[in-house]
Amino acid sequence: MKPLVGISCCTKQFGVFGMPNHAASDTYVRATDHVVGGVPVLMPANGPMADIETLLDRIDGIILTGSRSNVHPDFYDGPPHAEGTWEDPARDKMTLPLIRAAVARGMPLLAICRGFQELNVALGGSLHQRLQDVPGKMDHSTPMQPSAKVRQGKAHSIRVTPGGWLHRLAGTTEIAVNSLHNQGIDRLAPNLAAEGVAPDGTIEAVRVVSPATGYVVGVQWHPEYDWETDSISRRIFSEFGDMVRLYASGARFPEVAAAD
Fold this sequence. Notes:
Helix content: 25-40%
Number of strands: 13
CATH class: Alpha Beta
Distance between the termini: 33 Å
Strand content: 15-25%
Shape: globular
């Protein structure tokens, strides 16, 4: 029997009348179907109505998705967002407690883009709201034009932490990634370790180091866009799938293994 993989949703307005919907990109569903090898379960962004413990009793792993919306600054004591910034408070109020509960259980978790930022905030870190406005930082946002190849293509390199989780997975100390975000890590959460850093010093990959009882990793880029053509992106999902199956079997595992 395949394990169940929870995929976080956003609240978005669809249709002629702008009705609110709970939505996750098909890219995460396809990656779960084809690489993780699990059954995708969409988790609604229903805020404080979410029954976190019941949900975690029934799933075997979590993918936290990217989104156009920003994590609300109230959750990390940041200044108000600039006017026009997309927010999703219902998602924030669901995913942040979900992350803390999943980490406490030792449940496998893969955090991507907004999910990567949520992971940092949930565990006590803070964010830059617009990296392009921070002195010394480059513009990490996607070019707003119709070509998916340009939007989702490799945008810059990252320096991989020697001896870490990502180094073991990638087999190299430098990789190329896409870049489709405005927010970025400012203060790293105390129990996260940086696994990769952009040329401007922005943290692009992390893993949980305390408590060291589960598999919790995050990347700022979008491996779900190119797992069919990029071997590292595929390995990210493949290893996550291995950890999900291990968790579903009732086994528990130590801290994420680093390179030898």
